[in-house]
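thread: overnight batch results

M.L. [08:02]
morning all. the overnight job finished for the chain we discussed friday. pasting input first so we're all looking at the same thing
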Amino acid sequence: GAPRQMYLTQRETILDSNTVADEKLLSFIEKEIVQVGATFPQKVLLVLGTEHRGVSMRQLQKALGAIDDGGSGSKKKGGAKVPTEVSVSYKGDKLRPKDMKKERVLVVTAHRMFVIAKTGLFGKKKESVERNYHLYSMRKMTVAMAGRGEGNELLEIVFGGKLGSIFIETPRTDILIKTLRQAYRDITVGISSKLRMKCHLPISKCVELAPYVDQPAAGLRDCYLAQCDYRRVAPCEPFIHHCEGLWRLGVEQLDLGDIPGIEPNSVLKADLGAMCSALKFNTYFKAIRISNVYLKKRVSALGDKKSQEKKQKAKGQLKALPTILDITTSNRSITKLVVNDTQSHNFAPLGRALGGNAKGSLTFIDLSNSHFKARSFISLCRGLVAMKHALRALLLQNCGLSASHIALLLSSFESNFGMSLALEHLDLSFNNFGKRGSDALARWVACAKGYNALRTLRLRDTNLDIGAVAPALGVLHKLLLIDLSDNKIVTPTAVEGLCDVGGIATLQQLRVEHCSLSAPAIVQLLEALQKNKTLKSLELHLADNNIGAKGGAVLAEGLNNRYSLPLSLLDVSGNRITTSGLSLICRSLARYDTLKSFLVGHNIEKAATADVVLDLFNLVLNQQLEHLSIAGDQGYAKSLRVLCEGLQSNRSLRRLDVSHLELDD
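M.L. [08:03]
and the structure it wrote out:
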């Protein structure tokens, strides 16, 4: 219910549209400038080239910043009408007095500058917009030369592209310069000085601007509306409300998937080009996220399908994902980028941003479930090589990377240790390493000579040659978590490599699920872990391996002799362990004082014996377990009531997982 203008900067001007004496001109401005296709009507800041009513010369001097105690002119608000003649020329190279087009009206709005001409016979003249410039197009402003009239000066404004220059002669040059500078400042918040308009003005013309009033989300609203006006598209009001709502809550992550109209078939048809252009220099948001949004055929255009295709061919508009990634080419505040499962393959702008944005702050990149084109991945690797700052996290899970892709990526790590040595989180799961990728990983870790900052390394289901990689991983002295699940660890060389991983001093979580590990291999791993005297707390995930019916007793024996191991979690679910084997394992774990979680589900298919129920009960009470899982073991269905009744006096258990037991009434 709040008015739309409530967040706009309030600007005080003397010569504005409210003081214009020409009612016909006012109607023209209202119809042809303010209300033309505007969801958010433009605010008129200044009108020059017509008589202004109720403005005294003293008020005019005050507006120009040239007032003194001896100023002349009427002090009454209803003073004489003040003429503000304007002459313009569009020939910037050979300027002659006769080239100046007289009797023009200059209108400055929040986003644009219009030159209005009166054409037709005397008495039947009609107004028309002769020139229309967006303030974003201004490149340089300077006082070119003295004008023809005494005290008049010639203001030159240079525009970008093929717009050329405009020369303006008016006795109100000072207030025109001030209005243009102030309007330009308010729609370019966050843009670096190198990209801003250059003002080559005499000191007398550099009037101090009114202090900038901080706006929600670092002025994103004004910049976004200006971008929509620049592109001639309708603003998406929900986008503005969404960003301002995040600002009020103090949330600095913008999830583009939550914005109404982001989907290709949405009725709102939010324009991605204007959104992303406004975000390119925004200093409030620190993270951009877009996940599970189908962007493959989404273009940054509005209108029906035919007009979209026409605009795309005519203007070469980018598709949605490159447009979003292009934010990072100029933004200096965004530190986190998450793009997941968008069904798009063009990540080339991200590579250009990593290498070209010298003052970028991007340190967290998550592109999981994305698939790269060859050129896009090469561009990404080149960007990593050219990065000027450290990268903290790179997540490329399930990106369809082959051994050649992995080798190229790790080669870029070797080429830029300033970037790669700072990596704390690396996830390359569900890609295909093969022999070539495994050797490349081992080479990069070896070349770093232990200076890596890796804390988590996820290599799940990567066809990894653990025998080649694991010996090199032993030098990662800061590693807390390593996930080698879904990689075959069967050969003696692979098992020995896994034991080398167990020697990492700082290890806190080791995941080797579904690796076809046998009970003797697990015992060998336990022996290596026991020798690691620096371990303080360890979570060991051994689910879905090949312990089998006979392996339960072997594992129990291995655990019984190594009770000094600081296990905090043990997961042996899904290993087809018998009830007798589980009883032995529970009795062995009774000597582990640090154990807090025991996951033993999906093992028993037949009815659980009284012994295993009693051993589980004693383990929970004696070890003060906080988490027990017997999920999927239908054999506990009949014994569950007995177990729960026995746990009534328990004060430590926080989580009991009994899902998929097919319980009856």
